[in-house]
Structures are given as C-alpha cells and as structure tokens.
Design goal:
314 residues, alpha+beta, 5-stranded antiparallel sheet, 9 strands, binds adenosine-5'-diphosphate, binds the ligand N[C@@H](CCOP(=O)(O)O)C(=O)O
C-alpha cells in the first residue's frame, strides 16, 4: 500500500487553490507503487495524480526528473505533464513533504502482458529514446556497474541465505561484466525501470509511461534489456516467452533499429539488467527498510534471468 503520508482534506483544498484546477471533489489513496505516496484527485475540471515524495527519492534530483517528464510529454509521448501552479512552480511542499501534481493518464498496468502488449511497450521505449535524445542534461546511472559491485560486496554471503551458491554466481557474473561491459554503444536518456507496472495500457495501446525516478543517461540497448528482462519471462520463470521476446525487438526496431554492436552486446546487457534488479531486491529482502510498508519483491526470478542471459553469452 503506497500511502505513507495522509493529507487532510483542508490541506489539499488549500494546496489546489494555487492551481487553475477548480475545487476539490474527491481524493483517494492509490494502493499500487512502493516508493512514493500517490493520490487520485478529482476536481471540478479534471483528474490528477498527486505524488508526495518519500525518502527513497533524492529531492535534489527532482527537477531533473520533472523537466524530463515535461520534455517527453511536450514531444507527444504518453508521459504525464507535471502541472504548474499560477506562478509556474511544479515542485511544491504539502504537509511537510515535497509534492507534485501530475496529469492523470487513462489505462491500466497489465500483470500478465500479451506478446502484442510487449511489442507496444518495446515501440514506446524506442520513441522515448528518440524523444529523450534532445534532453541533453545528463544524470549518471546510480544503479550501474559500480553500484552492482558495491552492492554485491556489501551483501556478501547474505546472498547465499536467499539461495545457496548465489553469492559465488553473482561474483562470477560480475567479473565477466566488469571485463566486457560495452562502453561505446549509443547512449542518451533512458527510463531504466520500464516494467509492466510502469506502463499504462488500454488493450494493446500504450496510454502512459510513468515512474521516471530511476531515469538517467545510459546505453539505449541496456534500457531495452531492462524491458526484456521485465516483460519477456513468465512471472517466476527462467525460460523466456519466445513470442514476447521477439515482439519486444520487433516493436523497438520498428521505431529505432539496433546496430549490430547493440545486438551482439544483448546477452551481456541482459545480465546487467538482471543483476541490477536481483541486487536491489536482495538488499530489500535481507534488510527490509524500516518503513514496514515497503513491499519486498522476490530476487530469485532475476537470478534465473541472469542465468538465462549468461547461457546466451556462453
Ligand atoms: N500519471 C498517472 N496517471 C494515472 N495513474 C497513475 C499516474 N501516475 C501513477 N499512477 C498510478 O499510481 C500507481 C503508482 O505510481 P508509481 O509512480 O509507479 O509509484 P511508485 O513510484 O511508488 O512505484 C501506478 O501503478 C498507477 O496506478
Ligand atoms: N521495478 C523494480 C522496483 C522498482 O519499483 P517501482 O514500483 O518504482 O517500479 C523491481 O521490480 O524490482
């Protein structure tokens, strides 16, 4: 349940008075999500999402994320516009938290995507890469190779308590990744977390790309590998769904064809993407944040995906 902070109706009414949004009609906490508190707000004129940023976001980086969303939305992507108040401010304070009112987009996050939906997600990611190329402010990926190395060292043998042998497997894969991680592939602004829960869909149409708070400057093909690791496997499975895997590439390449070097690097990139989610999930699994509401996600499906991409690399 991602409502960590309650907002009294009076405080919300005062907050909305800063905007041209019309008066408050209703506000409901949104159960999905893990990082921030989100509310669905209805006013006389429209629906909005109100996000209150909780401690997992570095507030100093918020202007970069908000400007990126605005850039992509202005480019015509299905990305929610951050809403500015009468004075032009998008980032606000509400009940002691940093907050942002965001355009509401229709659609639902699918929990078991079809191949056609995976294709649409792949195409949407490629559009995001093309539109993000003109967003030139850079943000290094804080969850890249050096983070994986530090995180694996910190977790150490704790990984074996999740599954015997996991620490050695991770250490071995990290050595390969450190030795061969591609540095010269095309790079730019990437989402870096485009899981099905961060894509809103109506049927096979992508109506929303949300949750940009891991976005950064990194390899486009790495972002595709994240999407592949998240969409091309059954929930806990180790073997990819071949139709989904093919559809993701077809969708992506219908918008932005990959180079031969990007394609050749894919088994390595898939290992990197799997490790990234394996390690952040393992951190939460072994040392759950003191905030008991944070949902722990099982790291093991990403250990299976890591093994899959490692076999492709072999
Ligand atoms: N702009 C939006 N339009 C419609 N629904 C949204 C929007 N932003 C977020 N949501 C809803 O809120 C949920 C949680 O948002 P998300 O950004 O994923 O939270 P978290 O960062 O905590 O994971 C989403 O699953 C979706 O249902
Ligand atoms: N997608 C990540 C966790 C990040 O959660 P999100 O709700 O902010 O996308 C994972 O599955 O481990």
């Amino acid at each position: 349940m991602a409502v960590y902070t309650e907002v009294p109706a009076e405080a919300l009414e005062q907050f909305l008075a800063r905007y041209e949004s019309g008066a408050l009609l209703s506000a409901k906490g949104i159960a999905e999500g893990v990082s921030n508190s989100n509310f669905l707000i209805e006013t006389e004129t429209a629906r909005y999402i109100l996000t209150l940023y909780e401690k997992r976001i570095d507030l100093g980086e918020l202007p970069w994320f908000i400007a990126l969303m605005e850039h992509l939305a202005d480019a015509g992507l299905p990305v929610p516009h951050p809403i500015r108040d009468r004075e032009g401010a998008a980032i606000q304070q509400l009940v002691g938290k940093t907050a942002c009112l965001i355009q509401y987009l229709p659609g639902v996050s699918v929990s078991v995507p079809t191949a056609a939906q995976a294709r649409a997600a792949g195409a949407a990611l490629a559009r995001l890469h093309l539109a993000g190329a003109s967003y030139t402010a850079e943000r290094p990926n804080a969850l890249g190779l050096s983070h994986w190395q530090a995180s694996a060292a910190e977790l150490g043998a704790g990984l074996d308590s999740i599954e015997p042998g996991l620490a050695a497997f991770v250490a071995e894969r990290l050595e390969t990744l450190a030795a061969h991680w591609p540095r010269n592939l095309p790079r730019g602004t990437v989402h870096a977390d485009l899981f099905p829960d961060n894509v809103l869909m109506l049927g096979e149409t992508v109506t929303g790309l949300i949750d940009f708070y891991f976005a950064c400057t990194d390899l486009y093909a790495y972002d595709l590998a994240v999407l592949h690791a998240a969409w091309a496997f059954p929930k806990d499975g180790c073997a990819p769904l071949m139709d989904h895997a093919r559809a993701i590439f077809e969708g992506y390449e219908s918008v932005r064809p990959l180079s031969a070097a990007e394609r050749a690097a894919f088994p390595l990139l898939g290992q990197g993407a799997s490790l990234r989610f394996l390690l952040t999930r393992a951190q939460d699994w072994l040392a759950p944040p003191s905030d008991a509401l944070v949902q722990r996600k099982d790291p093991l499906p990403f250990a299976r995906r890591l093994a899959h991409y490692a076999r492709l690399d072999g």
